[in-house]
Amino acid sequence: MASRSFSRALRSPLTRQLTSSATQRRTLVSASRHARTGLATTLKPTVTASFQQSRGLKQIDFAGVTETVYERDDWPREKLLEYFKNDTLALIGYGSQGHGQGLNLRDNGLNVIIGVRKNGASWKEAQQDGWIPGTNLFDVDEAISKGTIVMNLLSDAAQSETWPAIKPQLTKGKTLYFSHGFSPVFKDLTKVDVPADIDVILVAPKGSGRTVRSLFREGRGINSSFAVFQDVTGKAEEKAIALGVAVGSGYLYKTTFEKEVYSDLYGERGCLMGGIHGMFLAQYEVLRERGHSPSEAFNETVEEATQSLYPLIGANGMDWMYAACSTTARRGAIDWSGRFKDTLKPVFNDLYDSVKAGKETQRSLDFNSQPDYREKYEQEMKEIRELEIWRAGKAVRTLRPENQI
Ligand SMILES: NC(=O)c1ccc[n+]([C@@H]2O[C@H](COP(=O)([O-])OP(=O)(O)OC[C@H]3O[C@@H](n4cnc5c(N)ncnc54)[C@H](OP(=O)(O)O)[C@@H]3O)[C@@H](O)[C@H]2O)c1
Protein backbone atom coordinates (compact mmCIF):
# COMPACT_ATOMS: atom_id res chain seq x y z
CA MET A 1 0.00 0.00 0.00
CA ALA A 2 1.27 3.44 -0.89
CA SER A 3 0.25 5.08 2.34
CA ARG A 4 1.93 8.38 3.16
CA SER A 5 0.77 8.35 6.73
CA PHE A 6 3.15 10.36 8.89
CA SER A 7 3.31 7.52 11.35
CA ARG A 8 4.31 4.90 8.84
CA ALA A 9 7.89 6.03 8.78
CA LEU A 10 8.16 5.56 12.54
CA ARG A 11 8.30 1.82 12.13
CA SER A 12 11.04 1.79 9.54
CA PRO A 13 14.58 1.92 10.86
CA LEU A 14 15.71 3.40 7.57
CA THR A 15 13.40 6.33 7.64
CA ARG A 16 12.81 6.91 11.30
CA GLN A 17 15.20 9.85 11.40
CA LEU A 18 12.85 11.61 9.02
CA THR A 19 10.04 11.44 11.51
CA SER A 20 11.67 11.83 14.85
CA SER A 21 9.65 14.81 15.83
CA ALA A 22 8.41 14.53 19.39
CA THR A 23 4.91 15.59 18.43
CA GLN A 24 4.53 12.80 15.91
CA ARG A 25 5.83 10.23 18.37
CA ARG A 26 3.51 11.47 21.10
CA THR A 27 0.54 11.23 18.76
CA LEU A 28 1.34 7.65 17.85
CA VAL A 29 2.10 6.59 21.40
CA SER A 30 -1.10 8.10 22.62
CA ALA A 31 -3.06 6.45 19.81
CA SER A 32 -1.45 3.10 20.57
CA ARG A 33 -2.25 3.44 24.22
CA HIS A 34 -5.89 4.05 23.49
CA ALA A 35 -5.91 1.11 21.10
CA ARG A 36 -4.34 -1.20 23.68
CA THR A 37 -6.75 -0.25 26.42
CA GLY A 38 -9.74 -0.73 24.16
CA LEU A 39 -12.77 0.96 25.63
CA ALA A 40 -10.94 2.42 28.59
CA THR A 41 -12.74 5.23 30.27
CA THR A 42 -10.25 7.77 29.08
CA LEU A 43 -12.05 7.59 25.76
CA LYS A 44 -14.58 10.32 26.36
CA PRO A 45 -17.67 10.33 24.19
CA THR A 46 -16.88 12.08 20.93
CA VAL A 47 -18.81 14.88 19.33
CA THR A 48 -21.64 12.48 18.52
CA ALA A 49 -22.34 11.82 22.19
CA SER A 50 -23.92 14.41 24.41
CA PHE A 51 -24.22 14.15 28.19
CA GLN A 52 -27.64 15.08 29.50
CA GLN A 53 -27.13 14.52 33.19
CA SER A 54 -24.15 15.35 35.34
CA ARG A 55 -24.07 12.45 37.79
CA GLY A 56 -24.79 8.77 37.80
CA LEU A 57 -27.26 7.68 35.17
CA LYS A 58 -26.55 9.26 31.83
CA GLN A 59 -28.55 9.21 28.66
CA ILE A 60 -25.95 9.35 25.93
CA ASP A 61 -26.67 9.81 22.28
CA PHE A 62 -24.56 7.29 20.37
CA ALA A 63 -24.88 8.32 16.74
CA GLY A 64 -28.59 9.04 17.09
CA VAL A 65 -29.48 6.17 19.43
CA THR A 66 -29.93 7.09 23.07
CA GLU A 67 -28.43 4.60 25.50
CA THR A 68 -28.16 4.48 29.27
CA VAL A 69 -24.70 4.58 30.81
CA TYR A 70 -23.73 4.57 34.50
CA GLU A 71 -20.46 5.81 35.90
CA ARG A 72 -18.32 5.03 38.90
CA ASP A 73 -18.39 8.62 40.23
CA ASP A 74 -21.76 7.82 41.76
CA TRP A 75 -20.29 4.94 43.75
CA PRO A 76 -17.37 6.28 45.78
CA ARG A 77 -15.54 3.77 47.95
CA GLU A 78 -17.33 4.76 51.16
CA LYS A 79 -20.70 4.17 49.52
CA LEU A 80 -19.58 0.77 48.23
CA LEU A 81 -18.36 -0.23 51.68
CA GLU A 82 -21.67 0.79 53.22
CA TYR A 83 -23.70 -0.94 50.48
CA PHE A 84 -21.88 -4.27 50.81
CA LYS A 85 -21.21 -4.09 54.57
CA ASN A 86 -23.27 -7.22 55.27
CA ASP A 87 -22.08 -9.17 52.25
CA THR A 88 -19.41 -11.77 51.66
CA LEU A 89 -18.43 -11.88 48.02
CA ALA A 90 -17.51 -15.47 47.16
CA LEU A 91 -15.54 -15.25 43.93
CA ILE A 92 -15.31 -18.69 42.34
CA GLY A 93 -12.51 -19.27 39.84
CA TYR A 94 -9.21 -17.45 39.60
CA GLY A 95 -8.42 -17.15 35.90
CA SER A 96 -7.92 -13.84 34.15
CA GLN A 97 -11.15 -12.27 35.45
CA GLY A 98 -10.98 -13.83 38.90
CA HIS A 99 -7.51 -12.37 39.37
CA GLY A 100 -8.41 -8.86 38.14
CA GLN A 101 -11.83 -8.55 39.75
CA GLY A 102 -10.79 -10.27 42.97
CA LEU A 103 -7.77 -8.06 43.62
CA ASN A 104 -9.74 -4.92 42.78
CA LEU A 105 -12.51 -5.92 45.21
CA ARG A 106 -9.90 -6.60 47.89
CA ASP A 107 -8.16 -3.26 47.29
CA ASN A 108 -11.55 -1.55 47.50
CA GLY A 109 -11.84 -2.95 51.01
CA LEU A 110 -14.77 -5.31 50.39
CA ASN A 111 -15.18 -8.62 52.13
CA VAL A 112 -14.14 -10.94 49.30
CA ILE A 113 -13.09 -14.58 49.46
CA ILE A 114 -11.82 -16.81 46.67
CA GLY A 115 -13.06 -20.32 45.90
CA VAL A 116 -10.96 -22.62 43.67
CA ARG A 117 -10.16 -26.32 43.60
CA LYS A 118 -7.26 -27.19 45.83
CA ASN A 119 -5.23 -29.18 43.35
CA GLY A 120 -5.48 -26.69 40.49
CA ALA A 121 -3.11 -24.04 39.15
CA SER A 122 -5.40 -21.27 40.43
CA TRP A 123 -4.93 -22.30 44.07
CA LYS A 124 -1.20 -21.60 43.78
CA GLU A 125 -1.73 -18.39 41.81
CA ALA A 126 -4.19 -17.09 44.38
CA GLN A 127 -1.68 -17.73 47.17
CA GLN A 128 0.99 -15.90 45.19
CA ASP A 129 -1.38 -12.93 45.09
CA GLY A 130 -1.67 -12.98 48.87
CA TRP A 131 -4.93 -14.88 49.38
CA ILE A 132 -4.59 -16.97 52.54
CA PRO A 133 -5.94 -20.53 52.82
CA GLY A 134 -8.58 -20.75 55.53
CA THR A 135 -8.87 -16.95 55.78
CA ASN A 136 -9.95 -15.73 52.36
CA LEU A 137 -9.03 -18.69 50.14
CA PHE A 138 -11.18 -21.83 50.21
CA ASP A 139 -12.24 -24.66 48.00
CA VAL A 140 -15.24 -23.91 45.81
CA ASP A 141 -17.94 -25.42 48.05
CA GLU A 142 -16.69 -23.81 51.23
CA ALA A 143 -16.45 -20.40 49.60
CA ILE A 144 -19.99 -20.65 48.26
CA SER A 145 -21.31 -21.70 51.64
CA LYS A 146 -19.80 -18.54 53.18
CA GLY A 147 -20.87 -16.17 50.39
CA THR A 148 -23.97 -14.01 50.09
CA ILE A 149 -22.97 -12.98 46.57
CA VAL A 150 -21.54 -15.82 44.50
CA MET A 151 -19.42 -14.55 41.62
CA ASN A 152 -19.08 -17.41 39.17
CA LEU A 153 -15.84 -16.77 37.31
CA LEU A 154 -15.02 -20.36 36.49
CA SER A 155 -14.35 -21.03 32.82
CA ASP A 156 -17.63 -21.22 30.89
CA ALA A 157 -17.21 -24.97 30.38
CA ALA A 158 -16.48 -25.47 34.09
CA GLN A 159 -19.60 -23.49 35.03
CA SER A 160 -21.64 -26.12 33.24
CA GLU A 161 -19.61 -29.03 34.59
CA THR A 162 -19.83 -27.92 38.22
CA TRP A 163 -23.45 -26.72 38.14
CA PRO A 164 -24.99 -29.86 39.67
CA ALA A 165 -22.79 -29.32 42.74
CA ILE A 166 -23.18 -25.54 42.87
CA LYS A 167 -26.92 -25.14 42.31
CA PRO A 168 -28.14 -26.64 45.61
CA GLN A 169 -25.89 -24.21 47.49
CA LEU A 170 -27.50 -21.15 45.92
CA THR A 171 -30.17 -20.72 48.53
CA LYS A 172 -32.79 -17.99 48.81
CA GLY A 173 -31.31 -14.59 49.57
CA LYS A 174 -28.02 -15.19 47.77
CA THR A 175 -27.11 -13.41 44.56
CA LEU A 176 -25.52 -15.10 41.56
CA TYR A 177 -23.12 -13.05 39.44
CA PHE A 178 -21.56 -13.85 36.06
CA SER A 179 -19.20 -12.04 33.71
CA HIS A 180 -20.69 -13.66 30.61
CA GLY A 181 -24.26 -14.56 29.71
CA PHE A 182 -23.11 -17.90 28.31
CA SER A 183 -24.29 -20.30 31.04
CA PRO A 184 -27.84 -19.11 31.76
CA VAL A 185 -28.69 -17.99 28.21
CA PHE A 186 -27.77 -21.35 26.69
CA LYS A 187 -29.21 -23.31 29.61
CA ASP A 188 -30.54 -26.05 27.33
CA LEU A 189 -26.94 -26.86 26.49
CA THR A 190 -25.11 -25.86 29.67
CA LYS A 191 -27.85 -27.13 32.06
CA VAL A 192 -27.31 -23.96 34.14
CA ASP A 193 -30.93 -23.39 35.17
CA VAL A 194 -30.76 -20.75 37.89
CA PRO A 195 -32.94 -21.13 41.01
CA ALA A 196 -36.09 -19.00 40.78
CA ASP A 197 -35.64 -17.27 44.14
CA ILE A 198 -32.30 -15.50 43.75
CA ASP A 199 -31.11 -12.37 41.94
CA VAL A 200 -28.98 -13.18 38.90
CA ILE A 201 -26.81 -10.41 37.49
CA LEU A 202 -23.90 -9.86 35.13
CA VAL A 203 -20.96 -7.50 34.80
CA ALA A 204 -18.87 -8.17 31.71
CA PRO A 205 -15.66 -6.14 31.46
CA LYS A 206 -14.81 -5.24 27.88
CA GLY A 207 -11.30 -6.56 28.09
CA SER A 208 -9.05 -9.10 29.67
CA GLY A 209 -8.88 -9.46 33.45
CA ARG A 210 -5.28 -8.25 33.27
CA THR A 211 -6.57 -4.95 31.85
CA VAL A 212 -9.29 -4.82 34.52
CA ARG A 213 -6.46 -4.89 37.04
CA SER A 214 -3.95 -2.62 35.33
CA LEU A 215 -6.49 0.14 34.66
CA PHE A 216 -7.66 -0.01 38.28
CA ARG A 217 -4.08 0.32 39.47
CA GLU A 218 -3.66 3.36 37.23
CA GLY A 219 -6.70 4.93 38.92
CA ARG A 220 -8.85 4.45 35.86
CA GLY A 221 -11.58 1.96 35.07
CA ILE A 222 -12.43 -0.47 32.31
CA ASN A 223 -15.73 -0.16 30.49
CA SER A 224 -18.17 -2.97 31.21
CA SER A 225 -21.65 -4.00 30.28
CA PHE A 226 -24.10 -5.06 32.97
CA ALA A 227 -27.40 -6.89 32.91
CA VAL A 228 -30.08 -8.43 35.06
CA PHE A 229 -31.31 -11.95 34.31
CA GLN A 230 -33.59 -12.29 37.32
CA ASP A 231 -34.67 -9.66 39.83
CA VAL A 232 -36.24 -11.16 42.93
CA THR A 233 -35.40 -8.41 45.42
CA GLY A 234 -36.10 -5.40 43.25
CA LYS A 235 -32.49 -4.40 43.90
CA ALA A 236 -30.77 -6.51 41.25
CA GLU A 237 -29.94 -3.67 38.87
CA GLU A 238 -28.57 -1.43 41.60
CA LYS A 239 -26.48 -4.34 42.92
CA ALA A 240 -25.10 -5.06 39.44
CA ILE A 241 -24.03 -1.44 39.00
CA ALA A 242 -22.45 -1.28 42.45
CA LEU A 243 -20.60 -4.55 41.87
CA GLY A 244 -19.52 -3.34 38.44
CA VAL A 245 -17.88 -0.32 40.04
CA ALA A 246 -16.45 -2.43 42.87
CA VAL A 247 -14.68 -4.80 40.45
CA GLY A 248 -13.07 -1.87 38.65
CA SER A 249 -15.42 -0.56 35.96
CA GLY A 250 -15.41 3.07 34.91
CA TYR A 251 -18.50 3.27 32.74
CA LEU A 252 -21.22 0.61 32.72
CA TYR A 253 -23.42 0.02 29.68
CA LYS A 254 -26.83 -1.57 30.19
CA THR A 255 -27.55 -4.69 28.17
CA THR A 256 -29.33 -8.03 28.50
CA PHE A 257 -27.77 -11.44 29.09
CA GLU A 258 -28.77 -12.51 25.56
CA LYS A 259 -27.35 -9.44 23.83
CA GLU A 260 -24.13 -9.67 25.83
CA VAL A 261 -23.49 -13.28 24.95
CA TYR A 262 -24.52 -13.01 21.30
CA SER A 263 -22.39 -9.93 20.64
CA ASP A 264 -19.43 -11.27 22.60
CA LEU A 265 -19.28 -14.69 20.90
CA TYR A 266 -19.88 -13.06 17.53
CA GLY A 267 -17.28 -10.33 17.96
CA GLU A 268 -14.44 -12.54 19.14
CA ARG A 269 -15.01 -14.96 16.27
CA GLY A 270 -15.23 -12.01 13.87
CA CYS A 271 -13.32 -8.74 13.73
CA LEU A 272 -11.74 -9.05 17.16
CA MET A 273 -9.86 -12.29 16.57
CA GLY A 274 -10.97 -14.99 14.12
CA GLY A 275 -11.98 -12.74 11.24
CA ILE A 276 -8.92 -10.57 11.47
CA HIS A 277 -6.61 -13.59 11.61
CA GLY A 278 -8.30 -15.08 8.54
CA MET A 279 -7.95 -11.80 6.66
CA PHE A 280 -4.26 -11.47 7.58
CA LEU A 281 -3.59 -15.02 6.39
CA ALA A 282 -5.44 -14.57 3.09
CA GLN A 283 -3.67 -11.32 2.23
CA TYR A 284 -0.25 -12.65 3.26
CA GLU A 285 -0.62 -15.88 1.28
CA VAL A 286 -1.56 -14.04 -1.92
CA LEU A 287 1.45 -11.74 -1.58
CA ARG A 288 3.76 -14.72 -1.03
CA GLU A 289 2.24 -16.66 -3.94
CA ARG A 290 2.81 -13.59 -6.15
CA GLY A 291 6.52 -13.51 -5.36
CA HIS A 292 6.77 -11.02 -2.50
CA SER A 293 9.26 -11.62 0.29
CA PRO A 294 8.11 -12.58 3.79
CA SER A 295 9.17 -9.22 5.24
CA GLU A 296 7.32 -7.28 2.57
CA ALA A 297 4.23 -9.44 2.90
CA PHE A 298 4.26 -9.11 6.69
CA ASN A 299 4.89 -5.37 6.66
CA GLU A 300 2.04 -4.71 4.23
CA THR A 301 -0.35 -7.02 6.07
CA VAL A 302 0.25 -6.85 9.81
CA GLU A 303 3.01 -4.49 10.86
CA GLU A 304 1.68 -1.36 9.23
CA ALA A 305 -1.84 -2.26 10.38
CA THR A 306 -1.01 -2.75 14.04
CA GLN A 307 1.78 -0.21 14.40
CA SER A 308 0.49 2.66 12.35
CA LEU A 309 -3.04 2.50 11.00
CA TYR A 310 -5.23 0.67 13.53
CA PRO A 311 -4.08 2.91 16.40
CA LEU A 312 -5.21 5.87 14.31
CA ILE A 313 -8.67 4.30 13.92
CA GLY A 314 -8.73 3.71 17.68
CA ALA A 315 -7.80 7.28 18.45
CA ASN A 316 -10.12 9.17 16.13
CA GLY A 317 -12.03 6.92 13.78
CA MET A 318 -11.85 5.56 10.26
CA ASP A 319 -12.05 8.90 8.47
CA TRP A 320 -9.09 10.17 10.49
CA MET A 321 -7.04 7.16 9.47
CA TYR A 322 -7.99 7.61 5.82
CA ALA A 323 -7.14 11.30 6.04
CA ALA A 324 -3.68 10.47 7.40
CA CYS A 325 -2.91 8.45 4.27
CA SER A 326 -2.05 9.38 0.70
CA THR A 327 -4.80 10.23 -1.76
CA THR A 328 -3.75 7.12 -3.72
CA ALA A 329 -4.18 4.86 -0.69
CA ARG A 330 -7.41 6.54 0.28
CA ARG A 331 -8.96 6.21 -3.19
CA GLY A 332 -8.23 2.48 -3.39
CA ALA A 333 -9.27 1.71 0.19
CA ILE A 334 -12.61 3.45 -0.16
CA ASP A 335 -13.28 1.69 -3.49
CA TRP A 336 -12.40 -1.79 -2.20
CA SER A 337 -14.08 -1.53 1.22
CA GLY A 338 -17.51 -2.04 -0.36
CA ARG A 339 -16.48 -5.23 -2.11
CA PHE A 340 -14.95 -6.65 1.06
CA LYS A 341 -18.08 -5.74 3.02
CA ASP A 342 -20.40 -7.37 0.48
CA THR A 343 -18.25 -10.50 0.33
CA LEU A 344 -17.87 -10.85 4.08
CA LYS A 345 -21.39 -9.92 5.21
CA PRO A 346 -22.84 -13.37 4.41
CA VAL A 347 -20.06 -14.94 6.47
CA PHE A 348 -20.93 -12.65 9.38
CA ASN A 349 -24.59 -13.58 9.04
CA ASP A 350 -23.67 -17.28 9.11
CA LEU A 351 -21.61 -16.60 12.20
CA TYR A 352 -24.43 -14.77 13.99
CA ASP A 353 -26.84 -17.60 13.13
CA SER A 354 -24.36 -20.13 14.48
CA VAL A 355 -23.99 -18.16 17.72
CA LYS A 356 -27.74 -17.71 18.18
CA ALA A 357 -28.46 -21.36 17.46
CA GLY A 358 -26.06 -22.38 20.23
CA LYS A 359 -23.63 -24.12 17.88
CA GLU A 360 -20.70 -22.03 19.10
CA THR A 361 -21.67 -22.74 22.69
CA GLN A 362 -21.88 -26.47 22.06
CA ARG A 363 -18.50 -26.44 20.34
CA SER A 364 -16.96 -24.54 23.23
CA LEU A 365 -18.48 -26.90 25.82
CA ASP A 366 -17.41 -30.00 23.90
CA PHE A 367 -13.85 -28.83 23.38
CA ASN A 368 -13.15 -27.07 26.66
CA SER A 369 -14.59 -29.86 28.81
CA GLN A 370 -12.02 -32.34 27.60
CA PRO A 371 -9.45 -33.15 30.26
CA ASP A 372 -6.61 -32.49 27.80
CA TYR A 373 -8.02 -29.24 26.37
CA ARG A 374 -5.00 -27.24 27.55
CA GLU A 375 -2.57 -29.56 25.69
CA LYS A 376 -4.76 -29.42 22.59
CA TYR A 377 -4.76 -25.61 22.66
CA GLU A 378 -1.03 -25.58 23.10
CA GLN A 379 -0.67 -27.72 19.99
CA GLU A 380 -2.89 -25.29 18.05
CA MET A 381 -0.95 -22.29 19.36
CA LYS A 382 2.27 -23.98 18.31
CA GLU A 383 0.92 -24.48 14.79
CA ILE A 384 -0.05 -20.80 14.60
CA ARG A 385 3.27 -19.66 16.06
CA GLU A 386 5.10 -21.68 13.43
CA LEU A 387 3.21 -20.34 10.42
CA GLU A 388 5.56 -18.43 8.17
CA ILE A 389 3.63 -15.18 8.63
CA TRP A 390 4.13 -15.19 12.40
CA ARG A 391 7.74 -16.32 12.17
CA ALA A 392 8.36 -13.44 9.76
CA GLY A 393 6.59 -11.17 12.24
CA LYS A 394 8.98 -12.14 14.98
CA ALA A 395 11.90 -10.98 12.84
CA VAL A 396 10.12 -7.79 11.75
CA ARG A 397 9.42 -6.85 15.38
CA THR A 398 13.11 -6.84 16.18
CA LEU A 399 13.49 -4.00 13.66
CA ARG A 400 10.95 -1.74 15.33
CA PRO A 401 12.39 1.59 16.44
CA GLU A 402 11.82 0.78 20.11
CA ASN A 403 13.76 -2.48 19.73
CA GLN A 404 16.77 -0.77 18.16
CA ILE A 405 19.73 0.08 20.31
N1 LIG B 1 -10.82 -13.68 29.96
C1 LIG B 1 -11.48 -12.62 29.53
O1 LIG B 1 -10.92 -11.74 28.89
C2 LIG B 1 -12.96 -12.44 29.88
C3 LIG B 1 -13.54 -11.20 29.61
C4 LIG B 1 -14.86 -10.99 29.97
C5 LIG B 1 -15.57 -12.02 30.55
N2 LIG B 1 -15.00 -13.25 30.76
C6 LIG B 1 -15.79 -14.30 31.41
O2 LIG B 1 -15.33 -14.45 32.75
C7 LIG B 1 -15.48 -15.81 33.16
C8 LIG B 1 -14.13 -16.36 33.63
O3 LIG B 1 -13.25 -16.35 32.52
P1 LIG B 1 -11.65 -16.33 32.71
O4 LIG B 1 -11.07 -16.12 31.35
O5 LIG B 1 -11.29 -15.42 33.82
O6 LIG B 1 -11.35 -17.76 33.28
P2 LIG B 1 -10.93 -19.10 32.55
O7 LIG B 1 -9.47 -19.01 32.26
O8 LIG B 1 -11.85 -19.42 31.45
O9 LIG B 1 -11.23 -20.09 33.79
C9 LIG B 1 -10.30 -20.30 34.74
C10 LIG B 1 -10.84 -20.82 36.05
O10 LIG B 1 -11.73 -21.94 35.89
C11 LIG B 1 -11.28 -22.97 36.77
N3 LIG B 1 -11.70 -24.29 36.29
C12 LIG B 1 -11.57 -24.79 35.04
N4 LIG B 1 -12.11 -26.03 34.98
C13 LIG B 1 -12.57 -26.30 36.24
C14 LIG B 1 -13.26 -27.40 36.83
N5 LIG B 1 -13.58 -28.47 36.11
N6 LIG B 1 -13.57 -27.31 38.15
C15 LIG B 1 -13.27 -26.23 38.88
N7 LIG B 1 -12.63 -25.14 38.37
C16 LIG B 1 -12.29 -25.19 37.07
C17 LIG B 1 -9.76 -22.82 36.76
O11 LIG B 1 -9.23 -23.45 37.91
P3 LIG B 1 -7.89 -24.34 37.84
O12 LIG B 1 -6.73 -23.38 37.80
O13 LIG B 1 -7.98 -25.11 39.08
O14 LIG B 1 -7.96 -25.15 36.58
C18 LIG B 1 -9.64 -21.29 36.84
O15 LIG B 1 -9.74 -20.83 38.16
C19 LIG B 1 -16.06 -16.56 31.97
O16 LIG B 1 -17.46 -16.57 32.08
C20 LIG B 1 -15.65 -15.69 30.78
O17 LIG B 1 -16.48 -15.84 29.65
C21 LIG B 1 -13.70 -13.47 30.46
Automatic annotation (TrEMBL):
The UniProt entry's sequence similarity note says: Belongs to the ketol-acid reductoisomerase family.
Q: Does the keyword Amino-acid biosynthesis apply?
A: yes
Q: Identify the NCBIfam families for this entry.
A: ilvC
Single Gene Ontology BP term? L-valine biosynthetic process
Q: Which gene encodes it?
A: ILV2_1
Q: What is its EC number?
A: 1.1.1.86
UniProt keyword annotations, A-Z = Amino-acid biosynthesis, Branched-chain amino acid biosynthesis, Magnesium, Metal-binding, Mitochondrion, NADP, Oxidoreductase, Transit peptide
Positions binding Mg(2+) 1 in this chain are 264, 268
The pathway that the record names for this protein is: Amino-acid biosynthesis; L-valine biosynthesis; L-valine from pyruvate: step 2/4; Amino-acid biosynthesis; L-isoleucine biosynthesis; L-isoleucine from 2-oxobutanoate: step 2/4
| Positions that bind substrate | 326
Q: Which is one GO molecular function term here?
A: ketol-acid reductoisomerase activity
Q: Where in the cell is it found?
A: Mitochondrion
Q: One GO CC annotation, please?
A: mitochondrial matrix
Which Gene3D superfamilies does the entry mention?
N-(1-d-carboxylethyl)-l-norvaline Dehydrogenase, domain 2 (1.10.1040.10), NAD(P)-binding Rossmann-like Domain (3.40.50.720)
Q: Which cofactor does it need?
A: Mg(2+)
Q: Which stretches make up the KARI N-terminal Rossmann domain? A: 65-255
The residues the record assigns to binding Mg(2+) 2 are: 264, 300, 304
In terms of PROSITE patterns, this protein maps to: KARI_C (PS51851), KARI_N (PS51850)
Region span, Disordered: 1-31
Domain KARI C-terminal knotted, residue spans: 256-403
Recorded hits in InterPro entries, A to Z, give: 6-PGluconate_DH-like_C_sf, 6PGD_dom2, KARI, KARI_C, KARI_N, KetolA_reductoisomerase_fun, NAD(P)-bd_dom_sf
The protein here is known as: Ketol-acid reductoisomerase, mitochondrial
Comp. bias regions, Polar residues: 14-30
